[in-house]
UniProtKB/TrEMBL annotation:
Keywords: ATP-binding, Cytoplasm, Glycolysis, Kinase, Magnesium, Metal-binding, Nucleotide-binding, Transferase. Mg(2+) binds at N112. GO terms for biological process: canonical glycolysis; fructose 1,6-bisphosphate metabolic process; fructose 6-phosphate metabolic process. It is found in: Cytoplasm. The record marks G113 as: Important for substrate specificity. The active site is at D136. Homodimer or homotetramer. The gene is pfkA. This is ATP-dependent 6-phosphofructokinase. Residues 2-309 form the Phosphofructokinase domain. Gene3D superfamilies: 3.40.50.450, Phosphofructokinase domain.
Length: 359
């Protein structure tokens, strides 16, 4: 049995734990008949034939290790069909490296973009298994991605720390949480840390609603307010613009404010005269050791991937649905995004306890 493995896109916690699950599972089933080729730095390694032959020992002791022992890089899906600067056909190069090594399959760990390329390789005839990783939890077809809960822990701890200083100084604080397109991380961390206002890309905000929520707290005698704001939070006015116009406007604003949080902070200061502080934990949210939940999830998904490989059930993502691992055809899920439903119970429950979503 010869398998290739790569980790692509933004890293997250539990990538190593997931690969360990795959290899330990295969070792126990295949015993001595197992060769592992680890492609370095994501699809780059598969395109340019940059790989290391690995053994089971390489996957020992990495359950708790953050990052990825294979390295990662972003190789946008939309550029996969575009030849590189030397005219190399990337898709053909990936197929040729796969075939030259005589692989039985390639295990691809990544998020949405990575999954689209995995599906492309499937369409091109390669045997592919995809494992859903990302702190964004936006992969369609799985209830959860590994990395998500570890990031929730970090973002929550950040907001917890901000809470105490915000209360001491009676300040308005904004904590900007990762997530350009979806707000799962902001929603979960916001609820877990008792944020007063949560702004998500899926629920465009109105300035007046944010100001009302702050005012309401003042009237209740609460001198501080905490906003958990997703990187991709957007105002109702901006969301209503045609795509091109919106892009141009946001690009112009990016010269004035480094991110949406600073724009909102400015708006609050101008309207209320109050000091507003912005905290951005940024890539810390993707770093460090995976939390126990992610260790368990990634180990289960990795082990289930090993079984899928031995059963030769290729072309699938290994998902977790209602607490059970399940194979989901890549053809059904690639290119779809799992977003927060503004009408979901969780959003309604959060609103019921007084959290404002700025809408
Ligand atoms: O997709 C994961 C993610 O961490 C997003 O939440 C974030 O917006 C983005 O990656 C950051 O990307 P980069 O590491 O390329 O700056």
């Amino acid at each position: 049995m010869k398998i290739g493995m790569l980790t692509s896109g933004g890293d997250c916690q539990a990538l190593n734990a997931a690969m360990r699950g795959v290899v330990k599972g295969l070792e126990n089933i295949c015993r001595d008949d197992l060769e592992i080729y680890g492609f370095l730095n994501g699809y780059k390694g598969l395109i340019y034939g940059d790989y290391r032959k690995l053994t089971g020992a390489d996957f020992s002791g990495i359950l708790t290790k953050g990052g990825t022992i294979l390295g990662s890089s972003r190789q946008p899906f939309k550029l996969m069909r575009v030849p590189d600067e030397n005219g190399l056909d990337k898709v053909e190069a990936m197929k040729s490296n796969y075939k030259r090594l005589g692989l039985d399959c390639i295990v691809i760990l990544g998020g949405n973009g990575t999954q689209k390329t995995a599906n492309l390789l499937r369409e091109e005839g390669l045997n592919v298994i995809h494992l859903p990783k990302t702190i964004d939890n936006d992969i369609y077809g799985t209830d959860m991605t590994f990395g998500f809960y570890s990031a929730v822990n970090i973002a929550t701890k950040t907001i917890d720390c901000i809470h105490t200083t915000a209360a001491s100084h009676n300040r308005v604080f904004i904590v900007e949480v990762m997530g350009h397109k979806v707000g799962w991380l902001t929603l979960y961390a916001g609820v877990a840390s008792g944020a007063d206002i949560i702004l998500l890309p899926e629920i465009p905000y109105e300035n007046v609603k944010i100001l009302d929520a702050i005012q309401k707290r003042h009237k209740q005698g609460k001198g501080f307010t905490i906003l958990a704001v997703a990187e991709g939070a957007i105002s109702k006015d901006d969301a209503a613009l045609p795509k091109k116009e919106r892009k141009e406007k946001l690009a112009k604003e990016a010269k004035k404010w480094p991110s949406v949080s600073y724009k909102i902070a400015d708006m609050i200061t101008q309207a209320t005269g109050s000091e507003v502080r912005v905290t951005i934990p940024g890539h810390m949210q993707r770093g460090g050791s995976p939390c126990p939940y992610d260790r368990i999830l990634s180990t289960r998904l990795g082990s289930a991937a090993a079984k899928a490989i031995v059963d030769r059930k290729f072309g699938n993502m290994v998902a977790i649905i209602n607490g059970e691992t399940k194979l989901v055809p890549l053809a059904e899920v690639a290119g779809k995004l799992k977003m927060v439903d503004p009408k979901s119970r969780m959003v309604q429950e959060a609103k019921r306890i007084g959290i404002s979503f700025g809408d």
